[in-house]
Amino acid sequence: MTDEQQLVSAAKNGSSEAFNKLLLLYQDRLYRFLLTRCTLKRDAEDVLQETFISAFKYMHTYDERWQFSTWLYRIALRKAATFTSTSAELEDIGDDAAGPLQACIEMSERENLWLTAQRVLPDELFTVMWLRYAEDMDVADVARVVGRSLSWTKVNLLRSRNKLKQELVETVTGSGV
Question: Least packed by Cβ within 10 Å: which of 12, 19, 39, 157?
Answer without folding.
Answer: 39
